[in-house]
Amino acid sequence: MSAAATLSEADLCSAFIKAVTEPRRVIGAKWVAYPETAGFDILLVRADGFQIGVEAKLVLNARVVAQVLPYREGWCSGSKAGPDCRAVLVPFGKCNDDLVRICAALGVTVIRLHVEAPKGGGTWGHPFNPYLPDEQTKLAADDWHPWAPPERCPVPEYVPDVQAGASAPVKLSEWKVKAIRLSVMLEERPVTRADFKALQLSPTNWLCPHGWLARGEGGGWVRCDRTPDFERQHPTNYAQIRADRARWMPAASAPRQVQVAML
Predict the structure, then answer these.
(1) How many independent structural domains does the chain possess?
(2) Rounded-to-integer distance, Cα 106 and Cα 85, Å
(3) Contact, 153 vs 51, CB < 8 A?
(4) Which of 87, 149, 206, 233 measures 20 to 30 Å from 118, CA to CA?
(5) The domain that contains 123 carries what CATH number?
(6) Domain containing 233: what range?
(7) Within this chain, do residues 18 and 92 fall inside the same structural domain, yes or no?
(8) Neighbouring C-beta atoms of residue 7, cutoff 10 Å
């Protein structure tokens, strides 16, 4: 059975990210691949901030083209953030030439990735084409179509430790980063409402009756059996955020004691 026969979209994304970020394969500018970011399977970000939004499919079809395009209101109004270029990623040989031409007319690049070794053995000189655009040499400029978004997609502080192209993937959202920071704080001490305010994190789900935290004996809130395990969801990002706590952790404030009126 060939490699293509057992390939999944997650496998396709993994192979592409490896090809894009592997030092010996990189041509020109350096890229960072953010899995499951800004609504794309992969958001590629060049050293100068240039972005490519990528959607992956095992065959080039209308569905993946629709996925990579913005909704009509975003397309016409120009009010939404987006990448500089949009692309679909498919295995080499899984393209319909007519649909490739339609993609070019829509401003979408079709990236073809070799998923099988050459018949004569060895490896491909470059595992995918076209090459990614380079800010200095304008490499493969004819293959890429500028979208000129009013603003670029927000880029997370940490590269998400999630699988690109997986069905129903766990995402590292801005809210999740704040929640992980709170979880790291709970490793050291009870948290207060001031901590939620400092992190710009809504306390509703955490502090409501039967919420994710319990009242501490000395005041403040502590972990309980309802507290989500964010470390299991994002082990790499959790460790990065924990190691970075000197930069973001707010100063501890004294928990407010509950006053009991004497009758």
Answers:
(1) 2
(2) 11
(3) yes
(4) 87
(5) 3.40.1350.10
(6) 174-248
(7) yes
(8) 17
